[in-house]
Design goal:
The complex is a heterodimer of chains A (about 475) and B (about 350). Chain A is mostly helical and about 475 residues long. Chain A has helices at about 5-15, 20, 45-60, 65-80, 85-95, 100-110, 120-130, 135-145, 150-165, 165-180, 185-200, 200-210, 220-235, 240-250, 255-270, 275-285, 290-305, 305-320, 325-335, 340-355, 360-370, 375-390, 395-405, 410-425, 430-440, 445-464. Helices cover about 75% and strands about 0% of the residues of chain A. By secondary structure, chain B is mainly beta. Chain B has a 5-stranded mixed beta sheet with strand order 4-3-12-7-8. In chain B, strands 5, 6, 9, 10 and 11 form a 5-stranded antiparallel beta sheet that branches. A 5-stranded mixed beta sheet of chain B has the order 16-23-22-18-19, with no helix packed on it. Classes of the chains: A mainly alpha (about 475), B mainly beta (about 350). At the A-B interface, helix 8, helix 10, helix 12 and helix 26 of A face helix 1, strand 10, strand 16 and strand 17 of B.
């Protein structure tokens, strides 16, 4: 729920109660000096308060929290014991990122109107923004003691905490909500999601399947539950069950993108790329061309050996969304498999234009260039220099440079680079093999024999 | 994964679901063991614990017995600390040891709510896993008894998070004890009961199950056998690379591993590549937590030959890892000596 959303929710909540009940007494909690307008004194009319309150609400709707703060402060001058005033002020302060101020306002609202959990819920938000986990936990304990049966409050907290990735605390609140919900399927699905998130897979499956099997529930709810059961089964290492539930989720609600993606991912993990392609094609048919579907579809088509349709999908995707790094990598992969080296290099250079910091990109480009029938050695060396700058201790850079220098007949430099590669990765056979061949070419048979001995030694050690 | 690595118990182990898992130390990239690679030593089959029904009871010699659920536990004030957990029977250079960042509620906080009696002297920690520890003993839950003083230490937790995630099921989900600085058996998994005991309380599940006969240090001196409970982790180091009986080509390498102690942070680590004729200081990682381990490394220009590589740690209290096993020891715990790693360089 956004802050504006919270504000609206609270406005509805407040209207349910008699506004007069919120404007208790007139003893000055706020010193007159803090009032922005000295003409406003306690005891003014309720209509003035209402006017300021609605102006403040309007300011919040217009995303002008500073103005709203000013108006709420004025309203509080009129009625210093107004929980609604302090609550509104807290929401506005939260929106204006005055988290410490917001906390104080919500604490005051809670003191003045202790029958609603909202000020406590909002304190949780303020304390989260302040990074004060101790106070946040104290708020949660307060909610559990004072509002143990308020399902809505626990659900709202669970949702907020999950959004903030405090999954264990979110689970705690979801458990509380479920306990008082009398089997509310939405609460139960939320609980299953969180249980799956923290690794309580058996609990997650129990809760999710209990909802999925409930035939009277809407298909969307059952589909969400089936999807969660599928993910939990996957995490437990039971792919057959996972596939069964994810298929069920798709059948129950064909509009849930996540179900297709999770199922395709399962097939990818077991290298069943054609099956993954079928699932993603079905998703595309139902949901249209979203990048989250097109990227894995293109990549899986390529992995399944259907290069041309895969390349076409990735090209189309990149035309619409040129910033998807993985699309360039998939494209390069396809071109490499089709032995189109120039196209492979072009794909990687495309990535370089959009994200020059992509890890080991220059090494990838150098490797691709070296596969060309007539390699541009000078260009490869330039790419390797760039690769070395970002990763000075990467054995691959020196190994590849050694191979290029051999091709350029710069043997001394090649030996130096290959030796450095061996130093960085002493157990790699291919480096010693290259060195051995080079020494033999140079007529240094003793050194060649020594390198071959190392190859044999490593291979014999590996087989033991 | 190394099934059974470093396993040195004399206990009766029964049940198809028992797990005994360890991963080579060389697979730890930084200083913290990833949760999925944490070692596991089960005495009994892992219990089926549901979050909805799980509860932790605090009782015994207290004014106010109570139980809390998972939600109650995780919403209490918590503490985060990095700590090594080592199996008391972990071999020298063994991998039944892991280092994690734990989060949980100090046991002292839970005890304070219960108001222990003034003569409370120890605490029984009981897990939800159960079985016959010894063949002649009844079916009982896993339990350990820990002195009150250790439980009141702020580093003793009821932990519910490991490395910022919920505890893995096999490591005690939803909550376990974590007695930082002590061997792993006292950090009871799947914790379900904390029972405050007085000096006269002797007939608990701890005694009935026969657990009081395990995890004891047995030393024979002058014909007398002395028995003492194994508790604080001895200062120790382990070589993660190279592995024992390895064959490597000549070259420049970095010998590396970890060092830890239950008493204090690590002060220094020495390394020898020639069976102890010469010891050189290793470089310690600047991150040296009180209860966690310290990563160390040592540059080695390995020339062809046969080598015995050893490491030796000293903690900031001056405790030094022994070069060999105490000959008076008659048990299989606290295997803390500097064991050589044999290496052939070709």
């Amino acid at each position: 729920m956004s802050l504006i959303g919270v504000h609206r929710f609270t406005a509805r909540w407040a209207k349910l109660r008699n506004i007069l009940a919120l404007l208790v007494g007139c003893s000055a909690l706020v010193a007159a000096s803090t009032c922005p307008d000295q003409s406003l004194k306690p005891g003014n009319t309720i209509s003035q308060f209402k006017e300021l309150d609605s102006q403040a609400e309007a300011a919040m709707r217009q995303r002008r929290p500073t103005a709203a703060i000013h108006l709420y402060k004025k309203a509080i001058c009129l009625f210093p014991n107004s929980a609604r005033g302090f609550y509104g002020l807290g929401v506005a302060q939260l929106a204006a990122r005055d988290f410490a101020g917001a906390r104080v306002s919500f604490q005051t609202a809670d003191r003045l109107q202790s029958t609603s959990p909202m000020p406590l819920i909002m304190q949780v938000r303020a304390n989260f923004s302040l990074g004060d986990m101790t106070a946040l936990k104290a708020n949660l304990r307060d909610v559990s003691i004072r509002f143990p049966k308020d399902e809505q409050a626990h659900t709202a907290l669970a949702r907020f905490l999950a959004e903030k990735r405090l999954s264990v605390l979110a689970l705690a609140e979801a458990l509380r909500a479920d306990k008082v919900s009398d089997g509310n399927p939405i609460s139960r699905v939320q609980l299953a999601v969180l249980e799956n998130m923290v690794g309580a897979y058996d609990d997650s499956i129990d809760n999710a399947t209990s909802v999925e099997q409930h035939l009277a529930l809407p298909n969307e709810t059952r589909a969400a539950a089936a999807g969660i059961a599928g993910l939990s089964y996957e995490s437990l290492g039971e792919p057959e069950q996972a596939i069964q539930y994810l298929r069920k989720a798709i059948k129950l609600d064909a509009s849930r993108e996540n179900s297709y993606l999770a199922l395709a991912d399962l097939y990818e993990q077991s290298q069943k790329y054609s099956d993954a392609v079928e699932v993603l094609k079905q998703a595309r048919l139902q949901l249209g061309d979203s990048p989250t579907i097109l990227l894995p579809l293109g990549a899986d088509l390529i992995r399944a050996g259907q290069y041309m349709p895969g390349v076409q999908i990735i090209h189309n995707l990149l035309r619409q969304n040129p910033n998807i790094d993985q699309a360039y990598i998939s494209l390069a992969d396809a071109e490499r498999r089709m032995r189109k080296t120039a196209e492979e290099v072009k794909a990687l250079q495309g990535l370089e234009r959009h994200n020059p910091r992509y890890p080991m990109l220059h090494l990838l480009i150098a490797q691709a260039m070296l596969r060309d029938a007539h390699p541009d050695y000078a260009g490869i060396l330039r790419e390797l220099s760039l690769a070395e700058t970002s990763a000075p201790s990467d054995a691959d850079v020196f190994y590849l440079r050694g191979k290029v220098l051999i091709a350029l007949k710069r043997y001394r430099e090649a030996i130096s680079n290959l030796s450095r590669a061996a130093e960085l990765r002493p157990t790699d056979v291919s480096t010693y093999y290259q060195l051995a061949r080079l020494y033999r070419k140079l007529g240094n048979n003793d050194m060649a024999a020594k390198q071959f001995r190392k190859v044999r030694y490593i291979e014999s050690a590996a087989t033991k | 994964m190394l099934p059974g690595a470093g396993f040195a118990w004399g206990l009766t182990m029964r049940g198809a679901g028992l797990q005994n898992l360890a991963y080579p130390l060389r697979s730890v990239q930084g200083t913290v063991t990833p949760s999925r690679m944490f070692f596991v030593r089960d005495h009994f089959e892992p219990p089926k614990v549901s979050l909805e029904t799980w509860s932790l009871r605090v009782e015994g010699r207290v004014q106010h017995s109570y139980a809390l659920g998972f939600s109650d536990l995780v919403e209490l004030p918590s503490r985060k600390l990095e700590a090594v957990l080592e199996c008391a029977g972990n071999g020298a250079n063994g991998s039944a040891v892991s280092n994690g960042v734990w989060e949980g509620v100090p046991i002292s906080v839970l005890l304070a709510t219960a108001h222990p009696a003034s003569d409370a002297s120890s605490v029984l920690l009981e897990g939800a896993d159960r079985g016959h520890l010894l063949s002649d003993r009844p079916l009982l839950p896993y339990s350990q008894v820990v002195p009150m003083k250790k439980c009141l230490d702020p580093s003793s937790l009821v932990a519910y998070k490991l490395n910022d995630l919920a505890l893995p099921k096999r490591n005690g989900f939803p909550a376990r004890a974590l007695l930082a600085g002590w061997y792993g058996m006292d950090s009871v998994k799947w914790l379900q009961r904390i029972v405050v005991l007085g000096p006269g309380d002797r007939d608990t599940v701890f005694e009935k199950s026969g657990m009081n006969r395990e995890y004891n240090r047995l030393t024979r001196q002058n014909g007398h056998l002395r028995v003492a409970r194994v508790s604080s982790v001895k200062v120790k180091s382990a070589i993660a690379w190279p592995s024992d009986a390895s064959k490597i080509p000549a070259g420049r390498y970095s010998v590396w591993g970890f060092a830890w102690s239950g008493s204090a942070a690590i002060d220094s680590v020495l390394v020898t590549t020639n069976s102890g004729k010469r010891w050189d200081p290793a470089t310690l990682s600047p991150h040296s937590p009180r209860y966690g381990w310290t990563r160390w490394s040592y540059p080695w220009n390995a020339r062809p030959g046969e080598y015995n590589v050893m490491s030796r740690a000293t903690d900031r209290n001056g405790n030094q890892q022994p070069l060999r096993r105490d000959p008076t020891r008659k048990d299989t715990y606290e295997l803390d000596w500097c064991a050589p790693v044999h290496c052939t360089v070709g």
